[in-house]
């Protein structure tokens, strides 16, 4: 009897393709890749911090950290939330409206910044009385304030200018401004001034020079992506300026509170402790925060990307696409933050060993801030969605809840535990705000980021992170640089395992080249 093989069945893909869903995830992942590189400027700044502490000492670096904190908090006022407003107005604008929005945002925020800088310059003697500094720096503190305050208008221009580029959904160009120019020029100039023995003024003048040049480059980027003539001629009155101003002033308190979360512990430590001790304590916390801010890059990356995309999808009424992007961004955010945070904690001793010995004080604070940032990453870009789509008062309410938590815990813990207490207060406050945003996103917009697709990548990340964390007791006895090499290797292996065994094929494919780490499923013959 002639036995013939039955005709083979046509091969079927592992799961039906969803081109629209893949496109949405690819946009999130692609934009996040560029934005992540921009946020990784925090790593370059961390390298700068190491150099600054060696060249200028703990007290002068601490004074710089405190004054830079005051500038960043002031920027949250001077930009009048135009950075957020541009993400809302530009994606929905037509015709000449994008140029009108950008022109108004740049001019309005710069005028406010110039006004604040002038008032600060005039009242510098009064401000100097509430800032702790080492004896050598205290004699020059008024002059330092009057010079350094002019960073404010130019930094405001950098913030608003790069926000205008992000509003065009161009997430790469700001990398050159924020990383290679602002960070790189500051480092080179600061080392140069230290070599010339400008030990009090050098660090502040170096930062001013780098920010002025970065502001010019930010404007150049605006001219490339917008009609610059129309930007310059944008009126300061009319329906759009009025709408942007009203929206900005409503959102500004929430943005100010975000800055206070980051900067208030530095200022509070400086205020509570007198003289060089106060300046140094602010510096220790600034170091811990700066290292942990590399982890913050994960969540902020997706917030940067999701803000204009959320406004766009809401404008098109595409709730399904918004839900899919929100879930995907949150899955990546938390599953990348877990091993990244574990790696930073594992490497903490080696990182701090590159600085002067007294900076080992920041080790516990660094670990606490990393843990807080991982928990915050688990809420995904919910805060960005609330800012773009929610009621204008919600970000401010969430921020106030978190700030109250920070103030209450800080007032209790900082006098007892110093830098470590400040870290606990900051981490708690951040997460009160983040969790409030996640809850509101669910109840208001019926968006929830966790489903069955999140379970496997979460388990994989928890296992790989747990393995790294289990090495921490042994790492206390490792010679430098075994800890940091082990952390880098552990992070790379964790990401490879996550992509290969944690993410599904749709999630992995959206990552582009990195997604190729996940092999295609072999079909049975």
* Beta-strand fraction estimate: under 5%
Task: Give the termini separation.
Answer: 25 Å
Number of strands: 0
| Class by alpha and beta content | mainly alpha
Query: With helices defined by DSSP (H or I, 4 residues minimum), what is the helix count?
Result: 23
Arithmetic mean of pLDDT: 83
User: How would you sum up the major sheet?
Assistant: none
Low-confidence stretches: 1-17
- What is the domain tally? 1
Approximate shape: globular
H and E string: HHHHHHHHHHHHHHHHHHHHHHH
Helix content: over 70%
Radius of gyration: 24 Å
Protein name: Membrane protein involved in the export of O-antigen and teichoic acid
Region (Disordered): 1-24
Keywords: Cell membrane, Membrane, Transmembrane, Transmembrane helix
Membrane topology: Multi-pass membrane protein
Architecture overview:
This protein has 525 residues and is mainly α. The chain has one domain (26-517). Helix content is 78%, strand content 0%. It has helices at 19-39, 41-78, 82-89, 97-122, 124-128, 135-138, 141-148, 151-167, 174-195, 202-225, 228-232, 239-272, 275-316, 319-346, 348-353, 363-377, 382-389, 393-417, 419-445, 452-469, 472-475, 482-502, 505-509. It comes from Kordiimonas lacus.
Summary of the model, kept short:
The chain is mostly helical and 525 residues long. The protein has 23 helices and no strands.
List keywords for this structure.
525 residues; mainly alpha; transmembrane
What is the topology?
Blueprint: H1 19-39, H2 41-78, H3 82-89, H4 97-122, H5 124-128, H6 135-138, H7 141-148, H8 151-167, H9 174-195, H10 202-225, H11 228-232, H12 239-272, H13 275-316, H14 319-346, H15 348-353, H16 363-377, H17 382-389, H18 393-417, H19 419-445, H20 452-469, H21 472-475, H22 482-502, H23 505-509
Helix pairs in contact: 1-9, 1-13, 1-14, 2-4, 2-8, 2-9, 2-12, 2-13, 3-4, 3-8, 3-12, 3-13, 4-8, 8-10, 9-10, 12-13, 12-18, 12-19, 13-14, 13-16, 13-17, 13-19, 14-16, 14-20, 14-22, 16-19, 17-19, 18-19, 20-22
């Amino acid at each position: 009897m002639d036995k013939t093989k039955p005709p083979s069945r046509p091969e079927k893909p592992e799961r039906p393709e969803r081109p629209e869903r893949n496109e949405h995830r690819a946009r999130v992942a692609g934009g996040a890749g560029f934005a992540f590189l921009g946020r990784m400027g925090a790593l370059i700044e961390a390298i700068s911090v190491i150099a600054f502490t060696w060249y200028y000492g703990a007290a002068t670096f601490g004074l710089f950290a405190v004054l830079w904190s005051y500038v960043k908090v002031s920027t949250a006022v001077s930009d009048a939330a135009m950075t957020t407003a541009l993400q809302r107005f530009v994606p929905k604008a037509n015709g000449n409206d994008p140029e009108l929005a950008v022109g108004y945002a740049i001019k309005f925020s710069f005028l406010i910044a110039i006004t604040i800088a002038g008032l600060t310059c005039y009242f510098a003697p009064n401000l100097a009385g509430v800032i702790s500094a080492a004896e050598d720096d205290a004699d020059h503190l008024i002059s330092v304030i009057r010079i350094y305050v002019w960073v404010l208008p130019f930094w405001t221009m950098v913030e608003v200018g790069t926000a205008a580029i992000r509003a065009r959904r161009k997430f790469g160009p700001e990398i050159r401004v924020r990383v290679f120019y602002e960070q790189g020029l500051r480092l080179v100039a600061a080392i140069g001034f230290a070599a010339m023995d400008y030990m009090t003024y050098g660090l502040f003048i170096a930062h001013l020079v780098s920010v002025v040049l970065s502001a010019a480059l930010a404007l150049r980027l605006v001219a490339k992506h917008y009609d610059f003539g129309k930007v310059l001629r944008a009126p300061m009155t009319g329906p759009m300026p009025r709408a942007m101003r009203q929206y900005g002033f409503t959102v500004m308190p929430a943005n100010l509170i975000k800055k206070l979360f980051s900067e208030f512990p530095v200022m509070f430590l400086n205020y509570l402790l007198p003289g060089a001790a106060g300046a140094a304590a602010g510096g220790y916390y600034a170091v811990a925060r700066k290292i942990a801010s590399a982890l913050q890059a994960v969540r902020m990356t997706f917030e940067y990307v999701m803000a204009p995309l959320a406004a766009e999808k809401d404008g098109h009424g595409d709730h399904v696409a918004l839900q899919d992007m929100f879930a995907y961004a949150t899955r990546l955010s938390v599953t990348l933050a877990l091993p990244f945070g574990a790696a930073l904690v594992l490497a903490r001793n080696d990182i701090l060993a590159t600085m002067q010995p007294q900076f080992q004080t920041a080790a516990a604070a660094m670990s606490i801030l990393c843990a807080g940032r991982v928990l915050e990453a688990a809420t995904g870009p919910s805060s960005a969605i609330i800012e773009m789509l929610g009621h204008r008062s919600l970000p401010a309410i969430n921020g106030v809840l978190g700030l109250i938590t920070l103030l209450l815990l800080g007032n209790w813990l900082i006098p007892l535990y110093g830098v470590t207490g400040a870290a606990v207060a900051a981490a708690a406050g951040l997460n009160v705000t983040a969790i409030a945003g996640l809850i509101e996103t669910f109840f208001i917009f019926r968006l929830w980021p966790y489903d069955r697709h999140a379970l496997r990548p979460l388990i994989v990340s928890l296992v790989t992170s747990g393995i790294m964390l289990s090495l921490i007791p042994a790492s206390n006895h490792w010679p430098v640089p075994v800890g940091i090499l082990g952390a880098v290797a552990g992070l790379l292996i964790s990401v490879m395992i996550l992509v290969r065994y944690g993410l599904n094929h749709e999630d992995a494919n959206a990552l582009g080249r990195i997604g190729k780490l996940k092999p295609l499923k072999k079909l049975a013959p």
